[in-house]
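1st attempt posting a full record on here, be nice pls
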Amino acid sequence: MLNNSKKYYVYIVECADGSYYTGYTTNIERRINEHNFSTRSAKYTRSRRPVKLIYEEVYDTSSAALKREHAIKKLTKKAKKVLVESKK
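the predicted structure (as tokens):
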């Protein structure tokens, strides 16, 4: 049986202006670093730096992570705040 240890992350960052950005990655540390310092960051976060990681979920498949990312992106900011607070 193949043991795929790769992990997929869905995350929420809080931007300097107080807005939230939801994303997906296979390397959470690299991606947060990109959001803060790189031209490879999302266009949305580039003008709202610095960003701070406030929430993450880990999945074993990219499919599950992408479905969850899509679901979180559809939430209102108020619902995202409730989600973030539920993990504290």
